[in-house]
Design a protein that fits this description.
With 225 residues, this protein is mostly helical. The protein folds into two domains: 51 residues, Arc Repressor Mutant, subunit A; 142 residues, Orthogonal Bundle (Tetracycline Repressor, domain 2), CATH 1.10.357. 64% of the residues lie in helices and 0% in strands. The chain is elongated, with a radius of gyration of 19 Å.
Length: 225
């Protein structure tokens, strides 16, 4: 299990959420997020209120206000859950036969695209109409977590040294990719094949500014040494 980066002390709206510690309260907190997830499959965030959530969850409105000052903060907490799911996608094994960094990027971003296209609510909150300034700020923070994991995996597979600079470049790569995916979601509701192809070209073009065209596999480099 990978932990999302600690929230900064001055995170503002995100800190307005009252996060439970007791098991029963945690279950109620998660049930509220589950309700928001279900509602976002068919409704836009602007159509969902505390009272809509209360009805869906089978709770009273005060029960939800106990944790969240407004519906927007429910979406912030739900976006954090989605981000954690994307981080955990990196726990999936890399497909067999990957022998280039281009193939590695394609495989990892394919996992992300599949997850987005299978979850309407996640697309709405992280790439679509529900993307607020607070959610965007948290998402950018967690891009660095994903970038760190990606760098660790790349340097384990290929003969390249880890560095803080490489983490920064991978973070930028994520931002570039998400911009194209966001445009696809805005225009078509999903990440289409055509837009994924454009995202792939952009990823590889930018990656070539800091990676050589060919990286030897680490196992082969070690064997040669």
């Amino acid at each position: 299990m990978v932990t999302i980066l600690p929230r900064p002390a001055a995170s503002g709206a995100a800190e307005a959420i009252r996060r439970p510690r007791q098991k029963r309260s945690q279950q109620r907190f998660e049930a509220i997020l589950d309700s928001a997830d279900r509602l976002l499959e068919t409704l836009e965030p602007a159509q969902i209120s505390i009272y809509t959530l209360a009805e869906e969850a089978g709770l009273s409105a005060p029960s939800i206000y106990h944790f969240f000052p407004d519906a927007g903060q429910v979406f912030v907490a739900l976006a954090e859950r989605y981000t954690q799911e994307f981080i955990e996608l990196l726990d999936k094994p890399v497909p067999a036969g990957i022998n280039t960094w281009q193939g590695y990027l394609a495989a990892r971003y394919a996992h992300g695209r599949e997850h987005y296209n299978a979850h309407t609510a996640a697309r709405r909150l992280l790439l679509g109409s529900g993307l607020s300034a607070t959610i965007r700020a948290r998402d950018l923070e967690n891009d660095r977590v994903i970038a760190e994991r990606s760098m660790a995996e790349l340097t384990r597979l290929f003969d390249i040294a880890p560095s803080a600079d490489l983490v920064e470049r991978f973070t930028e790569l994520l931002v570039i990719n998400d911009a194209i995916w966001t445009l696809s979601v805005h225009r078509h509701g999903v990440i289409t094949d055509a837009y994924e192809e454009q995202a792939r070209r952009a990823r590889e073009a930018y990656a070539r500014t800091f990676l050589p065209e060919y990286l030897p596999l680490r196992a082969a480099a070690e064997q040669a040494a």
